[in-house]
């Protein structure tokens, strides 16, 4: 068994209990275990994953394992690792779980990497502890993940050996998909990639409804403020999938919500939903809670933060901590930091006014709360399992070193697997009706261009 780095093995039993509860809420993954488990499609395969090490990710890991894979995992955000989830896996002897809260680094190794299937599902901050330096495969794995992480490109020569054995990658996030597309366009992608984020049952569910749940959860756990009060203004920066979920959550909590957008289509959508679209500069001094959702950088600058109200709450649910200029804030001369509690800091400017920064500018829904609920993550992760199965026959299907969508029928399958748990009853098309609208009665029901 591979060595793991886990903070507290005493939490394993708690982790196991929460994993059991989550299984009940993740019907897609449990159906995948039932359908594919007996066939063991991943037998002899290694799946390397990088994704927030939460309970929900734990159910994904155990599903991949149940389908025959050797699984190695690392976390990707210093605040998002749930140590009880990591401990439960360690006890069950599944792969390597790196938690960045780990204090000691025992010697550890990984299983052989022949015929690897790599699932680098989320960018990460793994460079922190030199976790992957002990072993060449680990170093190469780190390089692949760094490549997916951001434009800070790793030394490409380091990952070619592993890439040659890699059947492909399935990518979870909006930003990761951008990077993969850039790499494919430059001819730098060394294996096929399935862009799971672009499955309808991922981005139109996890990004929207997941954030609709976990944004208020994070803000409330961190600050206990009353979000819904007439005089308060909330700014949601970006009105893409995540922004839409956030805006609806804040409005649902009773707040007045403003939006900033650069894309006229999204701005128009916001207007049609009754949200006022503004610029940051025009409202920065009036806002009570800022939430960035763009996946872009330098969204809230130091200059903005200087102009904010006393005790304005500033958080990011988009991608990296660079959506907020944290580095410049921390370096600002005379700034004082009052740590209120873990992941909640009040930065006090020399003029005496302070702002409350959540999760040090990292994802506040994972840093200050526990991320998305299991049910919505079941949709995302069932896509991951189907994508990894699809990659097994990538060569036979003629996949090149490019990015691919999961076929629409699989996207629809993921939705179908989740409907019974919600008591939904689908209408069956007659052959005549199906012919009339030009689809098969069993689907796919929409072309790839349909936007939902
Ligand atoms: P998206 O592309 O649908 O939305 C981003 C929006 O931000 C776009 O409409 C874009 O026009 C807008 N935008 C970009 N720069 C802007 C600026 N300077 N000012 C105002 N608006 C700007 O992407 P999506 O799916 O909403 O994802 C956004 C980010 O959230 C990504 O980084 C993604 O990886 C991350 N994400 C985080 C999750 C979480 O649990 N915290 C869950 C899902 C996604």
UniProtKB/TrEMBL annotation:
Signal peptide: none annotated. Keywords: Hydrolase, NAD, One-carbon metabolism. It comes from the Eukaryota. Pathway: Amino-acid biosynthesis; L-homocysteine biosynthesis; L-homocysteine from S-adenosyl-L-homocysteine: step 1/1. Residues 207-371 form the S-adenosyl-L-homocysteine hydrolase NAD binding domain. Its EC number is 3.13.2.1. Transmembrane segments: none annotated. It is an enzyme of class 3 (hydrolase). Its cofactor is NAD(+). Binds 1 NAD(+) per subunit. Belongs to the adenosylhomocysteinase family. This is Adenosylhomocysteinase. The lineage of its organism: Eukaryota, Sar, Alveolata, Dinophyceae, Prorocentrales.
